[in-house]
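Below is how a single chain appears once it has passed through the pipeline. First comes the sequence as given, then the structure the pipeline wrote out for it. We keep one example in the README because the format questions we get most often are answered faster by looking than by reading.
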Amino acid sequence: MQRFRQLLRAATLDHLLADVRYSVRGMRRSPGFYSLAVLMLALGIGINAAIFSVFANVLLAPLQFPDAGSLYVVSSHAASLGDARRASSGPDFRDYRDQNTVFSGVAAVVPHFSEPWTGDGPPRVLSFAAGTEQFFTVMGIRPVMGRLFAPEEYKALNNSTALISWKFWKEQLGGDPHVIGRTLIIEDGRSIIVGVLPPMADLYSDVDVWQTLNTEWPSMKWRANKFLDVIGRLKSGISRSVTEQQLTSILRRGEGEPSDVQVQLTPLKDFIVGPVTHQLHIIMAAVAVVLLVTCMNTAALLLSRTVRRSPELAVRLGLGASRGRIRQQLLVEGLLLSAIGGAAGLGLASLSMGLVQQLPALILPRLHDLHLNLAALFASIAVVGLTSIVFAVLPASALSSLNIASSMHGARTETGRAQLRPFSALIVAEIACAVVLTVCAGLLVRSFIRVQAVDLGFQPTKVMTAYLRTSYEGPEGYSFWRAVLQGAAGVPGATTAAVSDCMPARAANRANLKFDDRPNDPGHAPSAEGCWISADFFRTIGSTLLEGRFFSEGDNESARPVVIINADAARRFFPGEDPIGKRITVNYLALGSRNNRPPQPREIVGIVSNVRQKALDLPAEPAIYMPYTQDDSHHVLDSMNLFLRAAGDNPGLLANSLRVKIQSMYPNQPVERISVMRDVVSRTLTQRRYSVGLMTAFATLALLLCALGIYGVVSYVTLQRTREFGIRMALGASRQDVLRNVLHQGGSLVLTGTVIGFVLALIAARGLSQLLFETAPFDPAIFAFSTLLLGVVGLLACLLPGVRAAQLDPRVALNME
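Resulting structure:
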């Protein structure tokens, strides 16, 4: 018996090897067909593996911090204040730290600010962050060299030690092994490096230098100045809802907090990747649909080829081969094809990993160590296995209805309905998937077009910008900025120059408002975007004055305080009134504000058009503008953006002259982030551009695959009906009748798939609504265009086989065997 089993296993192995050799010979005989099948599989599996790698790296990979699941970011929101997410202030943090019983540790971080670095080559601007004493303990971070800050160093208002990031140590300091004790000249002060932090790619990855955060800083005493990230580590067994309830009670006791304020805990991972989660889920779903279309298309091609091989299979059955033996042969062919396609797809995905990180439109967190990970590999292997089974089962199903006698004679008659069902189901499913992708791509494209068409409120075409970080914290900074403005305006090719702490189309700070002509509720103070600007700001960026006047050089510290508001602020705060001459008090909220005394009322002297101060796909908000020369806290003198309007159409040509001019006056002054405003505006759309590009590429690929699939199946069915068409034409049918018959048969499949896809697209469009701008999820024009496009593509794919059938010679067709 054992000997028999050994012989059986050997025979089975011989059969498998023979099947492999036979399959390879078959591929060599039809290189075009199998190359197309492998290419489609490689594209589908490769795109799927690459996108899934991005998906897994960004959303699924655990954070680098120990027990990261217990780390939460504390924020708040209130319906009475517009329900937007708010960070925390210094007093908020102290209350949470001192009164909570739910955290094992809680810390606050100033996540982003900049300082000038001089003394080591050309002057540069470094990215800084500052954390409270418990930050590194709460996060579980230990230095790779040196030490962390000592407790006493957190008590000094001007601490002279610093920690540097791994990235800064490697890229800026050359990985100096003797870096501990080295001195950095920061803002005309000296900081001694005491430690090097490990790579922190998941959180605050762009920070160069870390400083201590002292809770006695003036900016940490203002409850309305909410600029801190507060991170807490939840105690074991404490629920998130209980924590939110306790922290909400603590915050509501704070002075000036609205009674409806609610604290919200956000898992640290969601805080990092939350803005792109929905986008990646949609892209992953789209690429899965593309893979599904690819597999269905390949299955349809293989099924048609198997039926076309009926004479060969009939001969083998006639010579004594069992149907099971032939099914095994077909299974081996499917496995071999899937293996080749899968290997090519994984190779394509592996090569694409480096390209993905270089895409200028791809701004995603946690891409620092992107690679083809195990999850993507296992998912791809699962797809290969599934497609192998599908490719074997479908052709084998055609084998069960094979008629040996007719097949051995090679007769081509009208294909029966039973034979057509697998083809029809695959093509209908392909078309439905393609309709869904085309509708989604159309909605995103239309939304993107509308975003690009929004009124910016300014003219970026001839404007260049640069960022200047200084060491000025007092009135002496005024002379610096006046000299910079005068020098920049004198650069050859420039017409006007201006400064502001805001960046149109990208960023603006917030300000709370108080009105002189009405009662004010301190707990529900309205807010607006707030900017400090120079006199020529609106002229330089090309914004329109609607009423009143712009600022002048006379609006300085000794003049009466003034303010300019935008059209939306005039409409919302002064409906049916003329705001000019009215007075408002502005509580400017920004990191570094050093003035904790009540601000003075300001007279409204002008109304300007709405400038998009943030992303283009966000609605315009009320905004107020104040002359930087009237900042009595002198906070804005630390750093501002410089704007230069060029006389010509290429403002980028002014970059080198501007840098030379400023550094000729102030040799240690770094001039950073030089860019033309067109690029600044364009960068606000990078995520949207990425989604549109990928979805459009997927939809195009699905359309191409659909066209190939429809053409292949209709060609096959038409070929099978050659003799039938000859009989019809011999009995008097015209060539137009034959063409109409072919188009009707193919068109019915296209129509069925389009209707099913239309219904599925209605469901898919709802999930896309968060990514749309001024575009309804059910846009009749997009749905109509997409279904019409699929209909045209489908009919064109049917047209060529139909024309070929209509041109048949009846005598030849009747004699075909």
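The mean pLDDT is 80.

See the next section for the split statistics.
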